[in-house]
Amino acid sequence: MEGRKDRDQKVTDKLRENVKRIPEYVPGKSVDEVKRLFGLKKVVKLASNENPYGASPKALEILRRFDKLHVYPSPNEVEELIERISEYLGVEEERIVIGAGIDGILENVFKMFVDPSDEVIIPIPSFPYYHTLASVMNAKEIRVKRKGDFRIDEESIIGSVTDRTKIVIVCSPNNPTGNVEDVDAVRAIVESCNALVFIDEAYAEFASRDLMELSEYENVVVARTFSKAFGLANLRIGYAVMSTELKKAYMKVTTPFPVSSIAILAAIASLEDLEHMKSCVEKIRAERERLYHELKNRVRVYPSEANFLFFESHMKSSELAEELMKRGVIVRDCSKFVGCSPFSVRVSVGRREENDEFLRALDDVLRG
Ligand SMILES: *Cc1c(COP(=O)(O)O)cnc(C)c1O
Q1: Ligand 1 atom closest to Cα of 100?
Q2: pLDDT of 110 over the 60 cut
Q3: Domains in the chain, ordered, with CATH?
């Protein structure tokens, strides 16, 4: 008889080969874990680029009052949020989609475009999830090195495009390096090929300029999020701007209810309280500049237009991160990021006292 249970075969043997090859996901340590592990009373987490001032009080108030947990999110709520985003960006509602964070939107865009052995161009180093998705789809990753200041090498990217190229990723400000891209460099890529150029602007609010104008091109998607500047990371909500044609295709592949009502209503409340977001961004930018100059005396730090700083020291970053953790400060060791040196660290810009805590711990480690 065929299809009978073979006791020696495990279902994990049947996983797709590309999934087996993806390295196991190792989440960063939480504040509570580090407290327990090292017996610390106070721990500062500067590892996930979260907003240290939290969400708008208006968004928090929505959560307190919300009681419709038993029904699916309503299309009216989605429409209202899209209307608010449209006003916020000055972009037509017909071109806006919302999703479960930029991560959820990225997943849908890959579902829309990428067949096995299609090519995806990723400038390196950049956000790790791009590599994960390319592997999941069985795509061929084309990794293009950045220039010395971490800006994309547009000529090299254009030279790498083939008939099989489906997506070109552009992240600006780039995670983990913090630099923004020049609109003309990205425009050159957009105009030179038919591939989709996915522009990830998770940190746009912290930057002096953005690439939203490129969303007018039919082969561009610009994605933004409520996770960073708006402080709603835990609610998993983001949005993207694309052509009306692409939006139609997007709506075919997305799960029916990707975002909860709570997230939608909190996002609406956040857009009604832009003052909160702007005041957070202002404080974070000021601290970013202060921290940059402090770090400049200690390590090789790069200018940033995001809410984090990227630096390299003489110590291996795995070791440096571990030593900082023992002293109650969690940073992101980037040595495993594709295209990063073994000395690469990303530190989020926190509140003033958190940043001071980090500097104190760093001095202690580097002196020792
Ligand atoms: C944080 C981050 C994301 C994830 O955003 P969500 O909206 O929370 O999914 C996406 N891209 C980059 C570059 C990020 O740093």
Answers
A1: 9
A2: yes
A3: 11-53+275-367 (3.90.1150.10), 63-273 (3.40.640.10)
